[in-house]
Amino acid sequence: MATKVVMLGTGNPRPEPARSGPATAIVVNDTPYLVDFGPGVIRRVAAAYEKGVAALGYGGVNIKTVLLTHLHSDHTAGYPDLIFTPWVMGRKAPLAVYGPKGIKAMTEHVLKAWQVDIEARTTGLNQHNRTGWQVNAHEIVPGVVYRDGNVTITAFPARHEEMVDSFSYRFESADRIVVISGDTAPTQALIDHSRGCDVLIHEAYSMMACRSGARPSPEFRRRHHTSSAELAEIANQVRPGLLVTYHRSSAGEETATPEHDVLIEEIRRDYKGRVVAANDLDIF
Ligand SMILES: [Zn+2]
Ligand SMILES: [Zn+2]
After folding, report:
1. What integer pLDDT is reported at residue 219 of this predicted model?
2. Going edge to edge, which strands form the sheet with 151-157?
3. 124 CA distance to ligand 2 centroid (A)?
4. In this predicted structure, what is the pLDDT of residue 254?
5. Which bound ligand lies closest to the C-alpha atom of 19?
6. Would the CA dihedral through 52, 56, 58, 59 be positive or negative?
7. CA of 36 to the centre of ligand 2 (A)
8. Tell me: the pLDDT tens digits for 59-102?
9. Which of 178, 162, 182 is CA-nearest to residue 170?
10. Could you tell me which residues come within 8 angstroms of residue 62 by beta carbon, excluding any fewer than 6 positions away?
């Protein structure tokens, strides 16, 4: 398969050791495109590399094109790691990052915060290159945001309450169409952009977790996220070749009980297509 999906982080804000923060690599003809950079991103990239995903490069040195869904910290806390670790491992090209309004300011602040490190590594004894720490940040609007010989990437609006500038992404390559929801409540735009796609990677929370009274509140979930029942309804309209759940929300911050089987069972009640709950380092 020329196009592969590598799940680098399938978690949410809760720091579950087995789940890194949201990060997904779409690899097309051995070129990686990264969506989101939650905490732990480059450690998971290194693990995927060791598992055989050579396209990422050692320490992520081959990751040069990055898309961000929204500015929540669980999706961005790996930003300095993404910028500096591959540079220190030898990346020479500046990163190109596409994302919502605010990504330019975040980039400037991160680079400023690590200025002492940049100066030390470019002027000291152990000299690193002077380009690989640089970032070209692009603030995007819905539409085609990136295109090259491998892939066309289209951004469309997600609905994530106060994070008004939030995006979902559609990747179209020669052999596959992959859509990734980011964090979102149900939207017609997602259905329109993913109808008949090969892989739909979608966030979801379990109705059982919602009923259990665990935080966040049902009202918060309803305005920010997508329930298992809503996702089943979406999948029935989209008919993806494969539905993959990620950023799964379980019984709340207080418990680490895995319940993705409950989530999948809930989805299967109303949706009869192929569906899997992603774990870190799964490849689809
Ligand atoms: Zn999130
Ligand atoms: Zn979010």
Report:
1. 85
2. 143-147, 151-157, 167-173, 177-180, 199-205, 242-249, 275-277
3. 39
4. 41
5. 1
6. negative
7. 11
8. 999 999 999 999 999 999 999 999 999 999 999 999 999 999 99
9. 178
10. 31, 32, 55, 56, 91
Q: Smallest Cα–Cα separation from 121: which of 91, 76, 78?
A: 91
Tokens in use for 85?
A: 């670790």
Alpha-carbon distance of 192 to 199, in angstroms, equals 14
List phi, psi (to 5°) of 278: -75, 145
- Cβ-count burial of 196 within 10 angstroms (0-12 exposed, 13-18 middle, 19+ buried)? exposed
**Amino acid in position 256:** A
Question: Which ligand minimizes its atom distance to the CA of 70?
Answer: 2
Q: How confident is the model at residue 1 (pLDDT cuts 50, 70, 90)?
A: confident
Question: Is this prediction's pTM over 0.85?
Answer: yes
> How far, in Å, CA of 130 to CA of 282, rounded?
35
Stretch 206-234: mean pLDDT, rounded? 85
Determine the distance separating the centroid of ligand 1 and the alpha carbon of 13, expressed in angstroms.
6
Average pLDDT, the chain: 93
- What are the angstrom distances between the C-alpha of 218 and each of 57, 82, 164, 206? 41, 33, 20, 11
Joined together, the tokens standing for residue 3 give 């196009």
Specify the DSSP class assigned to residue 258: -
